[in-house]
Amino acid sequence: MAGAAVYFVFFKSPVQDSPQLTEAPAAPESVYLPLTDLTGKEVAMDENKIAFVNVWATWCGPCNMEMPSIQTLYDKYKDHAKVAFYIISDEDAETVNPFIARKGYNLPFYQYAGPYPGALDGNAIPRTYIIYKGKILTQEIGASQWDRPEVIELIEKQLAEI
C-alpha cells in the first residue's frame, strides 16, 4: 500500500510542476508533539516560531528529489529567530545518519516520539506543513520545490505579522 501511495504522489506532484501552496484547514488538535533528535534526546516543537515540518524517508524517491530545495530554504532561514525546521522520518538513526552524511545535508532531522497528531497523519510521503501558533498555514502532499518564491513570500508575510 505504501509503495502505491509513493508512486501516486510521485506522478501527481513532481518537483518540476511547482504546485500552488494550498491553505490547510485549521487543526482542531495540537500539532505540537514531542520529537526526538537522532541521538534520542527529546525536543519540543516551538509554537512561537514558524515551523517548517517535512515528513520523509531515505528510500522515498520524491522525498530525495525535494531535499535539496529544503536545504536551500533552511540555509536562508536557519539563523532566523522566528523560524524552525523539523525534518521528520520514522526510520531509525542507523538508517538516517549514513544517508545524511552521504548526501551532505545540514538539516535538523527528527523522529516523532509517539503517534502523529491527526492533522499531520497520513500514509503518503513526502508531506510538508508550514505551521504557526498551532495553525497549519499550508500543506502539501508530494514532492515540491521548497525554495520557490511562493514559499518564501508565505514565510516572509507571516514573519511581518509576528
Question: How would you describe this structure to a colleague?
Answer:
The protein has one domain (2-14, 21-161): 3-Layer(aba) Sandwich (Glutaredoxin). The chain is built from four helices and seven strands; from the N terminus they run αβββαβαβββα. It has helices at residues 2-12, 61-77, 93-103, 149-161, and strands at residues 35-37, 42-43, 50-56, 83-89, 109-112, 127-132, 135-141. The chain has a seven-stranded mixed β-sheet, covered by helices on one side. Strand 3, helix 2 and strand 4 (83-89) form a beta-alpha-beta unit. The protein is globular and about 40 Å long. The model is unreliable at 1-19 (pLDDT under 50). Residues 21-160 form the Thioredoxin domain. It comes from Dyadobacter beijingensis. Pfam families: Redoxin.
CATH topology: Glutaredoxin
> What is the helix tally?
4
| Main sheet record | 7 strands, mixed
Distance between the termini: 41 Å
CATH class: Alpha Beta
**Rough shape?**
globular
CATH superfamily: Glutaredoxin
Helix content: 25-40%
Strand content: 15-25%
**Strand elements, count:** 7
Low-confidence stretches: 1-19
Which CATH architecture would you pick? 3-Layer(aba) Sandwich
Strand order of the largest sheet: 2-1-5-4-3-6-7
Number of domains: 1
Mean pLDDT: 82
Order of helices and strands: HEEEHEHEEEH
Structural class: alpha/beta
Rg from Cα: 15 Å
Protein name: Thioredoxin
Pfam family, one: Redoxin
Subcellular location: Cell envelope
Keywords: Cytochrome c-type biogenesis, Redox-active center
